[in-house]
């Protein structure tokens, strides 16, 4: 019988940021073929802590502690179906950890689930990174991202682009060029500290109060884009905003970045009007009234999720904007972000 007071052989900590402001999203997909994406990795992070024990300790081989859900349960490695948290279970299966160990994986994040900020990618990236310490050799950052992507696409059979996994692996401000799905290059955008700090000060992330859920709309958009082909105008318009965002950040041009964000949101709406929900439109309207220079409906868009705002130079105007958004709808919530 396991002694719960026994100290682990080792404790492995891993963390990965969520993703906001994904200009060029939708072009990092199998039906787009090739893509250009700008995104920003930010706090709140996903935290993973592995407590590793010898197999002979008498403990269950794999234990998952999903703190945000208040659930702790043992995973059956021989099971032919998923249990309560398929993403966590599939990631553990994918990593094929040595049979010499058993472990408990604690997973926690301050980011709400379903916020359209790549939280699931951050979870799988952080867990892959931790489990990699229990396998021979080490994965490169790109290999970590591709492994996390494969969990969602190959094991769970989900639609998934590659940008979220890359952003969570590398963090920071990124320009991604996908040349052959899912293979991509990533360039981290290095800017002076003054530009970095000013961007951080101006950003706001507004959660729209409910988990993102627009799979039927997304399926219709995917069918249409598949028929139009990878070089159609709708996808080219999105790719262009990634280039504009990259160039604006290098110049320290916040109005230029804001224009690219807003242009991307308009291009999302051209894919399907319902990708820009009434709640998102209301947040954008309030932001515009308080001098914000840009807004991006995060992720693919649709009901729920979140909006990234790029505020103007006035800190008091940003605070007034956040207050009015909360007064408009108590379920709307500002999530503090840090680069």
TrEMBL record:
Pfam families (UniProt xref): GHMP_kinases_C (PF08544), GHMP_kinases_N (PF00288)
Keyword Nucleotide-binding (UniProt): yes
Superkingdom, natural source: Bacteria
Natural source organism: Candidatus Glassbacteria bacterium RIFCSPLOWO2_12_FULL_58_11
Alphabetical GO biological process terms: galactose metabolic process
Name used for this protein in its record: GHMP kinase
GO cellular component: cytosol
InterPro entries: GHMP_kinase_C_dom (IPR013750), GHMP_kinase_C_sf (IPR036554), GHMP_kinase_N_dom (IPR006204), HddA/FKP (IPR001174), Ribosomal_Su5_D2-typ_SF (IPR020568)
Key words, A-Z: ATP-binding, Kinase, Nucleotide-binding, Transferase
PANTHER family (alphabetical): GALACTOKINASE-RELATED, MEVALONATE KINASE/GALACTOKINASE
Domain GHMP kinase C-terminal: 246-320
GHMP kinase N-terminal domain sequence ranges: 103-172
Gene Ontology terms for molecular function: ATP binding; galactokinase activity
Classification via Gene3D superfamilies: 3.30.230.120
């Amino acid at each position: 019988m396991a002694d719960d007071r026994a100290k682990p052989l080792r404790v492995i900590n891993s963390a990965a940021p969520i993703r906001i402001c994904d200009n060029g999203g939708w072009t990092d997909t199998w039906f787009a073929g090739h893509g250009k994406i700008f995104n920003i990795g930010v706090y709140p992070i996903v935290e993973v802590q592995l407590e590793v024990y010898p197999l002979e300790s008498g403990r269950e081989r794999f234990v998952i502690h999903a703190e945000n859900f208040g659930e702790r349960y043992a995973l059956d490695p021989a099971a032919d179906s998923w249990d309560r948290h398929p993403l966590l279970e599939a990631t553990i299966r994918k990593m094929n950890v040595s049979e010499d160990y058993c472990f408990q994986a604690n997973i926690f994040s301050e980011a709400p689930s379903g916020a359209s900020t790549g939280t699931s990618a951050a979870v799988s990236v952080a867990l892959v990174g931790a489990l990699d310490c229990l396998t021979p050799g080490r994965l490169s950052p790109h290999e970590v991202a591709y492994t996390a992507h494969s969990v969602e696409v190959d094991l769970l059979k989900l639609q998934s682009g590659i940008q979220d996994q890359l952003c969570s692996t590398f963090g920071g401000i990124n320009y991604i060029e996908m040349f052959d799905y899912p293979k991509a290059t990533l360039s981290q955008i290095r800017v002076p500290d003054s530009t970095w700090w000013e961007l951080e000060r101006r950003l706001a992330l507004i959660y729209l109060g409910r988990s993102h859920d627009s799979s039927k709309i997304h399926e219709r958009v995917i069918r249409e884009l598949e028929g139009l082909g990878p070089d159609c105008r709708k996808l080219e318009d999105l790719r262009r905003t990634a280039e504009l965002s990259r160039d604006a950040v290098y110049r320290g041009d916040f109005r230029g970045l804001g224009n690219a964000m807003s242009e991307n949101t308009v291009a999302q709406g051209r894919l399907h009007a319902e990708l820009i929900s009434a709640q998102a439109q209301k947040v954008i309207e309030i932001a515009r009234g308080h001098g914000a220079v840009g807004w991006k409906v995060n992720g693919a868009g649709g009901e729920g999720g979140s909006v990234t705002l790029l505020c103007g130079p006035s800190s008091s105007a940003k605070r007034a904007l956040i207050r009015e958004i909360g007064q408009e709808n108590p379920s709307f919530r500002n999530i503090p972000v840090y680069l």
